[in-house]
Amino acid sequence: MRENGYSLILASTNNNHADERQCLEMMLNQGIKGLIVEPTKSNVYNPNLSYYSLFKQRNIPILSINAQYEELNLPYIAIDDIKSGHLATKYLIDKGHEDIALITKIDDNQGKLRMKGYFNAFENCNKVFKSEYIYTYDTESKLSVLDQFVEHVVSKQIQASAVVCYNDQIAYYIMKKLEKLGIAIPNDMSVVGEDNSVLSKLEDVDLTTTSHPQELLGEKAANWVLNTIETGKVQPSELLDTYIIERSSVK
Amino acid sequence: MRENGYSLILASTNNNHADERQCLEMMLNQGIKGLIVEPTKSNVYNPNLSYYSLFKQRNIPILSINAQYEELNLPYIAIDDIKSGHLATKYLIDKGHEDIALITKIDDNQGKLRMKGYFNAFENCNKVFKSEYIYTYDTESKLSVLDQFVEHVVSKQIQASAVVCYNDQIAYYIMKKLEKLGIAIPNDMSVVGEDNSVLSKLEDVDLTTTSHPQELLGEKAANWVLNTIETGKVQPSELLDTYIIERSSVK
């Protein structure tokens, strides 16, 4: 960016609509030339949508990364989340698991798409998932839902032999909690994450997960904005491919 | 249906997941040949999705009407809800309204699509909607949100001269409340509904709304199921067109 004579402003919304609003107002006032946004709670109604519309009206290029606000037609660059959820689930089915739990985030678009991938994997194998094996959380209920899952496993309230986690952070939390309570990974419970974060590669973790080409995504996003500013033509959206990364958290 | 040797079972979920589950279990146990479903709270996670998957696995034709569960790839027959929201909003813009409120349902897919249509209409006219003019409700908060809207209008907390309502029932409720409090329709407030229900045609109402070909939709849904059963081939999905019906609730 700097090479091209642009400077970067970074702002964090803390996944919170009030903070997001402040960021957007600040950026509009500072006369920014382009915006890359990672949507806040993309699957619940966002009271700030009109701000995004304002960027569009002022012809300020705006790109959404990772998640999308489905109500607006913003261009996006994102991982193929349906494929990610599908791969994680299919991998466990191929390993012979029948009872596969899912822990997913329900207030963002990515969580919904990864869940769709989970459903598709079962359907393509002509199997049926069990509703009671699906744990959904939102930003506020995250910890209580994760702890509930752990408790259900420990008390044998569910008989799952494997679990697909929304992301590596969730997988990491689950693994640590389960191990502390005497559930061996992967012998008693196989765990798959999604997004190949640093957490998946810690020495005592070694998590099977799906790839998430963050740097590529960042590079593409920056190029998208530069190209859109300089050509004056909105560049096309792009869905990035993903694949499974086999490590040792699955039996 | 009867002509073709089939009988009809009708079940209502009261827009409630527990009731929906009971219906689905009952139908699976009775060995039904096909299912037409109007999804329950289609924009929040539905713990009964696995039941729908079970129908598919057992090769029982299943069609969703009106709303859709986006996570599953069920075939559907539905009104073009984006177009409906777009037409209702565009009609008001064309009449010269600038400050147009929206009251929409946020826990179903139709509400989200109609809102998308509202956004699109502003965008296509190169105008920006105002976040504070958008009122979203779910099944539980409906009445309190509607009353809040009425209060904001009466106390002049918002300056909207027109409102797009999720459906005619909402429009009817709003009109009656506003009129009782001295706000004249359409002189002080223009109102557009969506779905051309019986409520829109009452003598003292005469609501401008969008068409909703319910009978056609029902007929197409029945034919879809019959054809899918008899040909063994899943028939294609269909989006039905809609148009604006001008009456006298808009100035």
UniProtKB/TrEMBL annotation, chains A, B:
Residue span, Transcriptional regulator LacI/GalR-like sensor domain: 90-250
Pfam families in the record: Peripla_BP_3
Keyword annotations from UniProtKB, A to Z: DNA-binding, Transcription, Transcription regulation
GO MF: DNA-binding transcription factor activity; transcription cis-regulatory region binding
Keyword Transcription regulation found: yes
Source organism, top-level taxon: Bacteria
UniProt xrefs under InterPro entries: AraR_ligand_bind_dom, LacI/GalR-like_sensor, Peripla_BP_I
Protein name listed in UniProt: LacI family transcriptional regulator
Origin species: Staphylococcus gallinarum
Lineage of producing organism: Bacteria, Bacillati, Bacillota, Bacilli, Bacillales
